[in-house]
Amino acid sequence: MIVGSDIEKAASFIKNGGLVAFPTETVYGLGANALNPYAVAKIFEVKKRPSFDPLIVHICNRKMMYELSNNVPILAEILSKAFWPGPLTLVMPKNSLVPDIVTSGLSTVGIRMPNNDIALKLIEASSCPIAAPSANRFGKTSPTKVAHVQKQLMGIDYVLDGGSTKTGIESTVVSVLQNECLILRPGTITLEDIQSVVPKGLLVKKLTKNTIHSPGMLKSHYAPQKPLLIINNFYEQLPEGSGLIVHKELMGTKHKTCKVIYTSKTNDLKEVASNLFSSFYEMDADPTVKQIFIEPVVESGIGVAIMDRIKKASFNSLKGYK
Ligand code: TXA
Ligand code: MG
Questions:
Q1: CA of 251 to the centre of ligand 2 (A)
Q2: I need a labelling partner for 203 at 20 to 30 A (CA). Which of 56, 192, 228, 262 fits?
Q3: 241-264 pLDDT, tens digit each
Q4: For residues 76 and 176, is the Cβ–Cβ distance under 8 A?
Q5: Stretch 163-182: mean pLDDT, rounded?
Q6: Which helix (H) or strand (E) covers residue 148, if one does?
């Protein structure tokens, strides 16, 4: 796996049907030419991703959206103008240019323009849209640094190093079909942000029931290797070998934990989101930590997306402890 900062070289791999990991503002992506089904097939192979889980197509200008969809919904126009480049994926009807393997056979495609110069330059230099899921093994924690990508994946041709990603959790995924917005995956662009730009009369909805509207939205995801549990009571005695992830300064609690990681000292939710996944990787890498406990955050604003990731990352551990 070559790691470097040569965008032209990375683009030549994409053009030749290879795989390139690259930074976005959210997490690192594992990219291939979205219009080449053989290249896209390699993404599924390397990630061990089931073929029912569709990929996001990354673009570097709004013109490319019109090349991938013949029926761009009005809501896609409004939201893309308001939030692109940025952490927002819009699900809209696809046309025949988009291979079925990208969308897992769906008639819709998720499109986003990332707010990261390296990503935008890579797409531009490759002269094609880039299909990219997060660059981790299926179900595991998304990478926010090159070292995280290297720990998880093999068989990548080139890794573009852009340092740590800023936002830290994946884009908000919104379906804009049938004149309504449905938030399929919460992110740092919140329900309230979307409501503030959508004309009155057009609905903005978040998923409420347990129905899986998006094939990739499973109950378990983002998991570290070690058991992860949400802790509500800070006065509880934690078992030997516990790591604790918290989001604000601990006052007067004395835990016999091996390791405490602060995602923020002040409960700043942007900071929490940015450091969440790297705190999982850090706990996994510490041999003294046997199990990880994590403090919840209030579920409003960006807190909705943070708790979505924490709940899914702890889902399998919860089953084991009950
Ligand atoms: O921030 C992000 O979105 C990162 C960076 C690399 O861009 N990408 C990312 O991709 O998180 P991935 O594959 O890990 O998650 C994409 C999610 C999946 O859960 C998938 O089900 C959903 O988006 N998705 C993609 N296309 C869809 C479609 N046509 N309809 C419904 N959901 C879709
Ligand atoms: Mg992912």
A1: 35
A2: 56
A3: 999 999 998 776 666 667 999 999
A4: yes
A5: 94
A6: helix 146-152
